[in-house]
Specification:
Blueprint lengths: L1 H20 L10 H17 L9 E4 L2 E4 L8 H14 L3 H18 L7 H18 L8 H18 L6 H25 L1 H6 L4 H18 L31 E9 L1 H14 L1 E7 L10 E9 L2 H11 L3 E7 L14 H7 L2 H6 L9
Antiparallel strand pairs: 1-2, 3-5, 3-6, 4-5
């Protein structure tokens, strides 16, 4: 699993520019590749932190710093759960948030197991795609969600055909089938979304998810990545232009944070954010409630104006890891300037502007 996430980090780093080039849905802001890369990198580094017996990973909470539960090196689910939780807290954009949801959910059926089998792979992929679909208020076919679902269905079909056989051979067949189905789903995205069809490109997030799944296949089977996998995908030739550059500029901002909410307040926040904007994603970070019965949630939304959304969030709890980013300004993998801070300070209270800065002082 550590090898999988490390391989995915490298692969997405290599492909991030091309993924950005074809990123036009849901917002033509050319940052899907960057967002996926940064989120996968967070997961990979969290997995690398797992040492013999256990790992300790620090993350910000409303109370300051807390320590995640130790992860058993030999428990596949525990290692992925820790990686998924860190990815969730550091997720970037729609694509990164959905991958973090996918990873954290996939870990659940694997808890307590020291190896992956075809039945466990099928269960993990199915849990992950269901959780990803449910995290979005308005899920749309023709995106990375469709790729996740296709891979899960293919793995389940292999598992069913082999009556739950847990041999490595059947696992290999299930992984092959999942990647093949994911590729077919990516090809279909072009005709599932009008924006993609008009631009004659496939979905960027879907391609990113395909690469992640092929990295899983490669890591588990000890085989090379399939170099020809992306051949022929529309818009993916390196000579093709950056499609999003010619698209109209999207107004508004992306607001993200982590916050502890009761189930009722979480439902209320989702409803209110749906009224304010779109691309609403809410998913639990970790599975346990605190003493007050509240759960930690990762929240993502696109809105025209940050101030009402931030006010709503603050009225229901104390957010951490809050960021506000202009949709029209693609974010660099390693931000060097306060390109967003000025816009934030102009519309939101100074306290929020401080929260949008990374520990090194750079604007997010």
């Amino acid at each position: 699993m550590k090898r999988w996430l490390g391989k995915a980090e490298t692969t997405l780093g290599n492909h991030s520019d091309r993924l950005n080039a074809i990123n036009i849905f849901p917002v033509a802001d050319g940052d899907t590749g960057t967002n996926l890369y940064l989120t996968v990198r967070a997961a990979a580094h969290a997995a690398d932190a797992v040492t013999e017996g256990h790992a300790v990973v620090e993350s910000g909470t409303a109370a300051g710093q807390s320590t995640h539960a130790a992860a058993d090196l030999h428990d596949v689910g525990a290692v992925l759960a820790q990686a998924g939780q860190v990815a969730m807290e550091q997720a970037r954009g729609n694509s990164g948030t959905l991958f973090a949801v996918f990873l954290a959910a996939a870990a659940e059926p694997l808890a307590g197991h020291t190896r992956i089998s075809a039945p466990l792979l099928a269960a993990a992929l199915n849990r992950a795609q269901i959780r990803a679909w449910s995290a979005l208020s308005d899920p749309v076919p023709g995106t990375m969600l469709s790729v996740m679902e296709a891979a899960a269905r293919a793995a389940a079909a292999v598992d069913s055909a082999h009556d739950g056989d847990d041999s490595n051979q059947t696992l290999g067949l299930a992984l092959d089938a999942a990647v093949e189905a994911a590729l077919a789903a990516v090809v279909r995205t072009e005709d599932q979304l009008d924006a993609l069809h008009a631009a004659h490109v496939v979905d960027a997030g879907g391609v990113g998810m395909l690469l992640i799944l092929d990295c899983l296949r490669s890591a588990v089977l000890g085989e090379e990545l399939q170099s020809e996998l992306l051949d022929g995908l529309h818009g993916y030739d390196v000579q093709d232009p950056h499609i999003h550059v010619g698209m109209p500029r999207d107004e508004g901002v992306e607001v993200m944070c982590t916050i502890s909410l009761s189930p009722l307040d979480a439902a209320m926040m989702r409803q209110r954010l749906d009224e304010m904007g779109d691309s609403v994603i809410m998913s639990q970070v970790g599975g346990a409630a605190d003493a007050a019965g509240a759960y930690r949630w990762r929240v993502h939304v696109h809105v025209l104006d940050a101030e009402p959304a931030v006010a709503l969030i603050r009225s229901l709890g104390e957010p951490t890891d809050m960021s506000v980013s202009e949709l029209a300004v693609p974010r660099d993998p390693e931000p060097q300037g306060a390109t967003v801070a000025a816009a934030v300070e102009a519309t939101v209270a100074p306290a929020l502007a401080a929260e949008t800065r990374n520990p090194d002082g750079h604007a997010r």
